[in-house]
Structures are given as structure tokens and as C-alpha cells.
């Protein structure tokens, strides 16, 4: 154990920092720091800038067009990008279906899809949750029926993040109605741009509509779009969720929000002085900063221990990561105080100038607070995660 | 940055874990209450605990803070109450970084060999948080110095062969070495709630030679602050070891104890509390890694910031894990019959010693102004 950054690691950090500084468009940076909601082209722009640099798939091996970086480099990259105000990388292709294709996909599937993920020529979405199947995902009801050379799929998916931009969905569907729960589920790739796919936005507490309901009515997928074997989809689904959880700590997000919190506290005025001078506020900020550092070390410890299964530690990352994202949003709202009360949805989407009475930088604090409640719910609720931890440590 | 243990670190921690599991069982620990047990201390020294932080030129191992973290986790697992922090980390670090070659030669190799135990006295009555001496005074004489005053809460003060004491010298803070048994030094030894010992030291015209001055002025303050920050990090590491061991034994208890026809471990509300204990333990350990990285910082303010953050967060985790373990043990948890109580008490002192949470929150505020 050697807890010092090597010269190579320091140099890598500088290289990433310099790149982001030079290449990240100023308007994107301004949008993320103001908590404006990002548009499709905002994400695509950033992904393609990275792809040009050869950094479009930071967590992928070189053979698939990735960087081949080690876990430490990936973490440094994530933190530096977020701190500088870069948009998050879309997880659906890079973090979810990409790794599944690499491990379980056919050669044809790899050839067809992987490189297009890096440049966002295909935008993916996740067809997992259903209205009656949230935490209990294995109870899902969407059916895929084999008819000749294709599957005919019928059902309803929900909470499908950014499905309104998506070209493709990786979908869990029941291919054997007689099998119980996990058995009888398959993973099928569905072209979203076909008749029978209907995407309806779900408006959430912050006024935005990033998540959707997706209706699938007699939607078709050729048999070659099946991942791995029929009825073995649960194995792939779990593999994917394992990937999702380790990335779900949101450590880069936490670092950026901590920086926003500090800057907000400096600028907000109360009782004639900066809120950052209030000793109670400063205690809160110092404590949350300590917890962000602890989370970062936790992410490092888990990432460095790649040889073994992350075990309960992946769930710990999910729980603490989401708790800290919520705490940071809460503190930002408290620091903004009543000046976070006015709310202008059009401004949030950068479609109008700001008209509120208070400073513009306080305007999104409450919306971000409402929005961040989702983090304890998605990717397996924190209560489900605690159940997973208990199961693993008790050994039942 | 490399989180995996080296071969040496693996061997060292394995040996310590075996030693502690064998010789720090509850009955053996209890039998040793009352003072420093020479056999117990020398078994720790034999495995390198005494010389761990002693520079190599003085016969020690000159180990890194990372190795200190690994070692003290094991000591915490076993609830070791010997002067592993006060002497082997704090006093040794202070002496190791000072410029007084005479004192280094006199004490450091003896410490590595197990022939000397040291203590550090800096707190005064009504001034438990002050790192500057206020009422203990040193007067320069022709052939040395005379010390007058009092130090409280000196960890293992009675067991120490030499005590490092802070005192005001011509209005400036200074650090002196005082040997046990010096004329005018009186030691009042008392037990502490965790099964350890501490002492009040009174100095009544205690004479020390010229070469017993360790440092003065800014340098003395910097050395004391460094020693305390190393001590806090070791304390956090021990807390992490204790939290891990206590979580393990609580799991075992819940698997064994049955109520309503099933093991307690089958109840979801208890499972979630166990999950929370593991989360707190792991986050505490992660925070301790951050403090350990901080110890290598050249800038004292950066080091202090990370160490204070760790102290606050680990203390909170320790309290949560200790209180939860008692609760999950039910009635047995509040008896003096079980190990859980010993762990609970040990985890409780993490907040109180070496600056409590209020002190460290204030230090963070002062550092960020």
C-alpha cells in the first residue's frame, strides 16, 4: 500500500485538465454550472470532442476503441471533467449495453454497435422497469414472441431515461411465459425508430421530463438482435446492473456540486453578509466535503480491487453516492434560502432570459434538490441495496 | 497510488492479527487492567510496533503513514490498550522530527527495542483544547531549566520512562523531555473508561538539563501539531479496526440468537441496521485513507484539514457503530458480560480524545478563513 500519487498519475491529471480547459465549449460549461437542463446536441458535442481525442470510451479496453485506462486513471478523468463543468457521459451505451455486448454479444453485434456508441451515432436507452415491476424487476410482463425470423414485442416500459432521444433500446422481455420469475427473460435490442414504439414523457418534480414511458405495440426485432441465449437474459441484466452500480457513486458529480455549493455560499447574501461567513453553514460545508473525500477514497478502493467481485461495496457506493448527491443539493437550496423559491421552467431549459427577483445563480437550487431525490430510488432503491448488503455480509 | 498491501505489509498485519486474537482476548485483557504489562508490550514490540515510526538510523523501520494505517487497524481489532498511539506514534513522531540529536539517540532506539515508553503532556486544567501551554512554565537557569505547573490527561503518563512536556519559556511555547522519577515530578495515575490508563503530572521546581529542550517557539508548536495529527490518524485507524471487528461479532450474534422462532438476522429492520454499520465502517476507513494521504502533505494546513475531517467523520461513524451494536445485542448489550461493551467504550473515546468534534469543526473553520 502506497498512498501517494505517482508522477505519472499527476501528469495524467494535468493532461486531462488541460484538455478539458482547452476543448470544453464555454456555453456547455455555463449550462452545467447553472444547472440548466442539457439538450441532445449538448451531450453529442461533448462525446464527439472526446472521441476525436481518443477518449470517447474511457472505461473500455483498447480493442473496442476504448482508452485502456486503469481504474485510477478513469477516476481522475471523471473528476477532472466534472469539476470543469463537462456534461456527464451518457451511461446507456458506454456503461450499460457496451460491456454486455463485449461479454455476451455476437461478433456481428459487436461490429455493428460498439463503435457507434463512442460517437453517439446510436443513442441507447434502457428497457428495464415496468409499471408493475420496479424494485422487483424480475416480475416484468413485456412479452417477446418468436414469429418466423423475428420477435414481436408487446408491453410497456417506464422510467426510461432520455428515451425521447434514443435510436435503440436494450429491452428485457419474457420469452417463456411458463417459466418463473428470472427464468424465461431475454435481452433483445429494439430499433426505436419504427411504428409501434411510442415514447411519452413523464414530468418529474423539478419540472423537466428526462424520463419516459415507452409503449411497445407489435414492435419487431430480428432474431439476430437477441443477446446471448434466449431465456438467459437475467444473467446479462444482472451483469449490467453490477456495472451500473459501481458508476452510480457519482463522485465526479459530487465534486462539481461541492464546488457549486461553495461558490453559491460565497455569493448569496443574508443579514448583510455572505452566507459563507455563517459558522453553521461552514460546518455543514466542511462536513459534506469530508464525506465527498471519503466517497472518493471508497471509489478508489473498490476500483483498485478489480480482481474480486465488488460485493457489498458496490451497494455501499450506490447508497453513499446518492445520499451525498442529495445532501449537496439540499445544502445548495438551504444556502440559497427563500431566493430559490421563484421558479421559471423556461429559464431552466435555457429558453428564456432570467426574470426572477433574486440572483440568477440561486434560481435552480430548489429544482436540483427536487431532481436529486431520484438518486436514492433509481438503480435499485437504497433500501434494496441495504438488503443486498445484509444478504452478502450475513451470508444467508 | 496503490491500495494493495505489499508482501511485508501483509506479513506484518497477519502476524499482528494472530497475536492480538491470541493474547488480547477479553479475559487476558481484563487480567492486565491496572498498568502496563511488560509481557504484552514486549510482544507488540517484537512484531515491530515500537520501532514502526522510528527512523532507520535509530534502529527503527521508518515506516510510511500507509503502513501505520495498516498496523493500527489490527491493533484496533484487538482493543489493544497499550501505549501504541501515545508513545509509538505521537512521542516517537515528535522526537523523530526534532533537531535534538542527544534526545533522539537517548530515546528512539530504546523505544524501538522496547526498553522505553514515552508519553506526551500538553493539555492543562480548563484548557483541554489548547495546543499552546498556558500555565506550565519553564525558567532558564545556569545549567538548564526549571519546570513548574501541571499537565492533565497524559495518556499512559505513569507507564512512561520519559514524558514530553510543553511549557512556556520566556513567553514562548517550548517542549522538554522529563524523565520519570525526576525530583519534584508527581504522577497521579488513574483508570479510564476504556480499560486504559492516564495520569495527571505535577511539576514543582523540576530541574532538567540544557539538552532536554526539544524545541521552542514556532518549531515546538509545529512538532506538537504534527505529533497530534499522526496520533489522530492512528486513532482513526484503530477505530476502523474496532468497527470492523464489532460489526463481525454483531453479525455472528444475530445469526445465533433466536426470537419468535427465527434468528434475529432474519429480521429486515435488523439487517438494515447491520448494513448501516458496514457502510459507516467502510466510509470511516475510506476517510482514514484520506487522512493518511494528508500526513504526507508538506503544508501543515492541508494536513490539518484532512486530519480534522477524518477525526470528525470517524468519530461519528464510531459512535453509530458502537451504539448500534449495543442495541442489536439487546439486553445483553448493556451488561458488562460481553465483548460488545468493551468495543462500545473504545469507540466512544474516539470522539473525545485528541480534540473532540467541536474542536475539529472549529479548526476547519479557522483553516478556511
Describe the fold and architecture.
The complex is a heterodimer of chains A (396) and B (369). Chain A is of the alpha+beta class and 396 residues long. Chain A has three domains: 7-89, no CATH class; 123-232, Butyryl-CoA Dehydrogenase, subunit A, domain 2; 248-394, Butyryl-CoA Dehydrogenase, subunit A, domain 3, CATH 1.20.140. Chain A is built from 13 helices and nine strands. In chain A, the strands form three sheets. A four-stranded antiparallel β-sheet of chain A has the order 2-3-7-6, with no helix packed on it. The radius of gyration of chain A is 22 Å and the shape is globular. Chain A starts with 6 loop residues before the first helix and ends with a helix. The mean pLDDT of chain A is 93. In chain B, a hairpin with a 2-residue loop joins strand 4 (162-169) and strand 5 (172-179). Helices cover 52% and strands 18% of the residues of chain B. In chain B, the strands form two sheets. In chain B, strands 1, 2, 3, 4, 5, 6, 7 and 8 form an eight-stranded mixed β-sheet that branches. A two-stranded antiparallel sheet of chain B has the order 9-10. The mean pLDDT of chain B is 96. The two termini of chain B are 31 Å apart. Chain B is globular. The A-B interface holds A 1-6, 9, 72, 279, 282-283, 286-287, 289-291, 293-298, 300-301, 304-305, 312-313, 315-316, 319-320, 383, 385-387, 389-391, 393-394, 396 and B 1-6, 9, 64-67, 69-70, 247, 251, 254-255, 265-266, 268, 271-272, 274-276, 278-279, 282-284, 286-287, 289-290, 292-293, 296, 306, 309-310, 312-313, 361, 364-365, 368.
